[in-house]
Inverse folding.
């Protein structure tokens, strides 16, 4: 039983000795070994052997890059304004021995060094420059801290300004200034927009007036040309109508009987109207009636033939004379005789009511040649 206890004690002692001899260092760590309170060596990551009861791992230094955020610190600017600035520092231990024996607490030392350096940098800048020069402040802090912490075995990689908070009164003034500046820019942009709108509107009105004037001019020109062509065509039509009428008259070879018949047709129109109590028969009608009764007399003022050149116009194919045409001509002659007889009776019946116009007696003139006989002239 005693031997078993001794074996167990020896096993425990061996295990304790092995625990003091074998040291395991994690990755990205460094172990500082002291022998009787004095630095002996630095253990690398992995399995390490030390002298038990003589060597002791005093510190384990983290070799990774570390991030430390410092609380806001009051800083006075050049224009005597107090602002609160909080920073973030990225650093890494490069020499575990120096970080252990050159400085007691390197994190606190870095914080205090950051605050003092920040006060020095911001103290030479006004508030406006402080708010707009973060990169400059970061660069100044990084340079000063890296130089100061190099002998501590620390490398400062980056310094960032998290926030710069001016006093509430300054914030309110800045907001008012910013609002006024934005209102100013808005007013300028509005005025420029109105100016551009007025310019574009004026240009549009100018172009519209020019186009309207050009349209009115072209419309007037086209209207004048249309009226001119219309007048020309109308005059040409009237000329052709007159020529056609005169040609028809010449082709028909009217005699004194036809003209007298036309006079007789005008007599009822002369007597139209209820207010006509007295009407005068033109002397030409009497002469026309005398011409109807005599083939050797001619009505004064009615020529037998017209002079000048006859301009012929194609009137289309003439219709051949038929028995129907002869019958119609005879019927027309009979109507002419009846009209002449009625006119003579009317003239004799109205002898007491009117006086016949004094007209010269008809003179003997050559008779109108018949259509079958050629003109003697």
């Amino acid at each position: 039983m005693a031997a078993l206890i001794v074996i167990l004690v020896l096993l425990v002692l061996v295990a304790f000795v092995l625990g003091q001899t074998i040291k395991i260092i994690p990755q990205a760590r460094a172990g500082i070994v002291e022998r009787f309170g004095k630095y002996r060596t630095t253990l690398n990551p992995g399995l390490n052997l030390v002298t038990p009861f003589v060597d002791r791992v005093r510190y384990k230094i983290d070799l990774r890059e570390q991030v430390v955020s410092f609380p806001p610190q009051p800083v006075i600017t050049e224009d005597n304004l107090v602002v609160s600035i909080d920073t973030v520092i990225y650093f890494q231990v490069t020499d575990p021995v120096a970080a252990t024996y050159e400085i007691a607490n390197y994190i606190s030392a870095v914080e205090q060094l950051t605050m003092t350096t920040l006060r020095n940098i911001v103290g030479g800048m006004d508030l406006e420059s402080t708010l707009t020069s973060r990169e400059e402040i970061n660069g100044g802090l990084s340079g000063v801290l890296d130089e100061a912490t190099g002998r501590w075995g620390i490398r400062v990689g980056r310094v960032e300004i998290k926030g710069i908070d001016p006093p509430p009164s300054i914030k309110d003034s800045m907001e008012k200034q910013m609002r006024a500046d934005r209102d100013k820019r808005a007013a300028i942009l509005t005025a420029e927009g109105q100016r551009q709108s007025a310019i574009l509107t004026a240009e549009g009105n100018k172009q519209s007036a020019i186009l309207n004037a050009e349209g009115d001019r072209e419309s007037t020109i086209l209207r004048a040309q249309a009226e001119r062509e219309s007048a020309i065509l109308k005059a040409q039509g009237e000329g052709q109508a007159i020529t056609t009428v005169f040609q028809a008259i010449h082709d028909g070879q009217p005699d004194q009987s036809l003209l007298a018949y036309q006079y007789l047709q005008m007599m009822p129109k002369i007597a139209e109207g209820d207010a006509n109590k007295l009407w005068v028969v033109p002397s030409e009608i009497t002469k026309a009636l005398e011409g109807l009764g005599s083939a050797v007399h001619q009505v004064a003022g009615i020529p037998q033939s017209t002079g000048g050149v006859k301009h012929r116009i194609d009137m289309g194919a003439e219709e051949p004379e038929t028995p129907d045409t002869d019958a119609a001509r005879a019927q027309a002659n009979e109507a002419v005789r009846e009209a002449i007889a009625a006119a003579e009776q009317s003239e004799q019946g109205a002898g007491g009511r009117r006086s016949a116009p004094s007209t010269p007696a008809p003179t003997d003139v050559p008779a109108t040649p018949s259509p079958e006989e050629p003109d003697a002239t």
